[in-house]
Amino acid sequence: MLKVKNLTKHFGSKVAVDNIDLTIKRGQLIAFLGHNGAGKSTTINMLTGLLKPDAGSISLEGHQPAENQYTHYLGVVFQDSVLDKQLTVAKNLSIASKLYKDCNKQFCEDLMQKFEINAIKNQKYDSLSGGQRRRVDIVRSLLSQPELLFLDEPSTGLDIQTRKKIWEVLDQLRQEYGLTIILTTHYLEEANQADWVYVMDKGKIVASDTVDNLKAKYAKNSLTLFFKDESLAQSIPLNDNDQMSGKKVIVKITSYQEAMQMISRYQNDIYDFEYVHGTMDDIFIELTGKEIK
Ligand SMILES: Nc1ncnc2c1ncn2[C@@H]1O[C@H](COP(=O)(O)OP(=O)(O)OP(=O)(O)O)[C@@H](O)[C@H]1O
Question: Is 234 found in the same domain as 119?
Answer without folding.
Answer: no
